[in-house]
Amino acid sequence: MKDKQAATSAPVAPRRPHSFARHGITVPDDYAWLKDSNWQEVLHDPKVLDADIRFYLEAENAYAEGLLGHTAPLQKKLVAEMRARIKEDDSSVPSPDGAYAYFRKFREGGQHEMFGRKPRDGGEEKIVLDGDALASDHGYFKFGGSRHSWDHRLQAWSADTKGSEYFAIRIRDWDTGRDHADLVEETDGGVVWSADSKSFFYVKLDDNHRPMQVWRHRLGTAQADDLLVYEEKDPGWFTHLHESTSGRFCVIAGGDHETSEQRLIDLNHPDAQPLLVAARETGVQYSIADRGDELFILTNADKAIDFKIVTAPLTAPERGNWRDLIPHRAGVYILDHDLYSGHLVRLERANALPSIIIRDLDNGEEHAIAFDEAAYSLDTMGSYEFDTTNLRFSYSSMTTPSEVYDYDMASRTRTLRKRQEIPSGHNPADYVTTRIMARSHDGAEVPISLLHRRDFKRDGRAPLLLYGYGSYGMAMPASFNTNRLSLVDRGFVYAIAHIRGGTDKGWGWYLDGKRDKKTNTFDDFAACARALCEAKYTSQRRIVGHGGSAGGMLMGAVANRAGEWFGGIVAEVPFVDVLNTMLDDTLPLTPPEWPEWGNPIESEKDFRTILSYSPYDNVAAKDYPAILAMAGLSDPRVTYWEPAKWIARLRATMTGGGPVVLRTNMGAGHGGASGRFNRLDEVAIVYAFALWAVGMAEKEAA
């Protein structure tokens, strides 16, 4: 067992002088060699990774093990605690469809889900897909989509066995339990069945891992014989499929982060050409729900920043025929809408708190479902059935385990269908959820959701984990998470910073944290750290920052700009080499990301803006907090070389502080390890590092 002082020497990545110039600006990039020129093949087969790069990544892994190896008993203890809070034979609430009710469940000790059904009114369960059995021959296994056919005879399912997010689709027979010969590869995993259950639609990924083509596969034929239905020509647009609310249409949904466009294929006429709803207009987003011959469209058209709902005739759905149903209300952000035969449901958020609004389509009356806690999470769960008055939704808070309700929209009665069980025990009264506001540099009020034990003393001495994301308009819900209790029960405060770049306070909150306003995201996070210290929830250098993906970019930027507030920073699959990535239009996500970050290829202004904050390009000769970066070798979203380059430059440039550590999962991608229990091993590493960064790991081991 090694302690911090006895850790092995940190690897030193060779500097191989390299630079590039754009818009008359020269940028050094001495660690560019860590990007394998054969990266597309590495996604398909990680074994072909360049030997020098593999040697360096494995040396970093050995260093991480040497530095944090002394926390192994603590990690093991954390895993045991977190696993003990998981109901191992958990099952979803069955969802009715026709004569059956479909469900997902786990077996005791199982890593992966099973998919099954039973008669709608009760009876014997039947399992059609056993994830544990399917995963037994693979080091990595993750289900993609799983959808039964309309005649209930077949189950389309997909899986990724490398972590690269290339999903192969297969067709299983409910009667025999065997897969048909059909195999459809290199897809995004989703399936939409035709009404006759003789074919299905899917999206194929191209050589750059982009979902650009919609194909139709006829059962019993080879993938080479599939029919191309639609192809997106703009490399900045991604394409996905889903069933419409009534189940009548396959919806081809395309877009980037600012603009969208949808087409409909009548599933009763799968050979028909897709019907365009409304032609794309830059900056206009929309999504559709259908009821009879009318479309209900959620959109930001006509400067409806927080979105509105309009209607349009199915026979003439273009923009000129849109009519307001739910007008725009500034500050009330409509996140989503769902449609049933007699009711329109919308999920809204105001003042960073969600609510569900139900509208009777016969008389126009509306009522809300809301809750009273200071911070909570609320979500609708959808249904296979359209002609129903039943709405299923979920509720939780940072103290209250998840609850699933069935709500009769006509009688307005609520039935609890499931409450998350915590086998090792959980008393919500032992914990407190609260919310405070932080004032950012420009006066913006940033909400912070907090979880701590009821016996917590607010004297500034407690360690605190501050989590943030702040990109793509994604809000961070104040929901229940059993894993966090392992930190909170050890005296940590757990805090979520609802910073700009997310939609926690509406779409305008997102717009104020993107492109040339991106630094608001970082300044908001730093303001939250200061506010938490001023309110004596913690103190300087007792904070551990945590974020992943674009939230990992946040961690890198904050380490550069306000690292003095943090005792530690955890950056999971961190997007830290922003400039280089946005300059490489061959990477899977680059063209679709330009609306979010800017296009530095064409715009000098965007180039300079990104260069000003990109974490890798702004590493400085200064002290840094302890940093743990975690990567996945086959990650197609944030490529492994981003954190590798970042850590290499940090170690070569920083003048003190640290240490900085890189841990690369050599057999996984963006989501980390597969399997619900294997993932706990990675969570335990994060938490052990957090405890170690504030001086508590040694105390635990004593």
Question: Could you explain how this protein is built, in words?
Answer:
The protein is of the alpha+beta class and 702 residues long. It has 14 helices and 40 strands. Helix 3 (72-84) crosses helix 13 (678-693) and helix 7 crosses helix 8. Helices cover 20% and strands 33% of the residues. The model is unreliable at 1-7 (pLDDT under 50). A hairpin with a 2-residue loop joins strand 24 and strand 25 (353-360).
The residue ranges in which pLDDT falls below 50 over 5 or more consecutive positions are: 1-7
Sheet with most strands: strand arrangement: 31-32-34-33-35-36-38-40
Number of helices: 14
Summarize the amount of helix as a percent range: 10-25%
Average pLDDT, rounded to a whole number, is: 94
Structural class: alpha+beta
The count of β-strands is 40
Rough shape?
globular
- CA-based gyration radius: 25 Å
**First-last Cα distance:** 13 Å
- The multimeric state of the shown protein is single chain
| Beta-strand share of residues | 25-35%
Question: Main beta sheet: strand number and arrangement?
Answer: 8 strands, mixed
